[in-house]
Here is the input.
Amino acid sequence: MPESEIKAAVRWKLKDILNFPLEQATVDVINIPTDQNAPGRARFVYAVAARNEVIKRCVDNSQAAGVDLEVIDIPEMAQRNIATFLEESGRGVALLTFNDDGGLLTFTAGGELYHARQIELTAPQFVVEDAAQRQRNFERLGLVLQRSFDSFERQLNYITLARLVLGPMLGQSALEEYLRANLDIPVVSLDLTEVVNFAAVKGLNDPAMQAQCLHAIGAALREEGGT
Here is the structure.
């Protein structure tokens, strides 16, 4: 299919999936790079859809605040922007982040997003006082991650993952220790100060604040003209 027709085709595909009328939707697509050594492999894209009224509200709020809005991003791409700084040449990286709303696991390589998965566990669930419940949350996450890695390896076996990077959060060291012991991939914790200079914003030295602002930071790292 010609590049110019992909967005229209995806928009039409979404008409039976969206829970609101298609004419009220803003739709965009994110191309997933194919295996250069297998040009005949099926091509995939991510579809992103939002209500027009939500987009308009973002634009109106930005204009009211005197902000020159250029892009409205999504968490997956914002996280991709951070992961780009964590990659090793020729290898991919998995980045796992949590905040009070939930978790997000992304797989990137060569500065491109290949796969993303929402995780229905929140940062506070990993620091609950009940040790037994905390352990169950660790185990639940471990199972989700193992299934995600297995699925990624089956579908995108031409990408070798170098490591899993755990984003900043309270209880980061305990979760990192658990994941290291239970996953067959190197696990390290992300120090955002290695990616961004927070000298002018002292509050962002706090891991909990970094977790809450991580996607906003990632969005700010978008390169002009990037996708």
In short: The beta strands are 25-32, 44-51, 92-99, 102-109, 112-119, 161-166, 187-189. The radius of gyration is 19 Å.
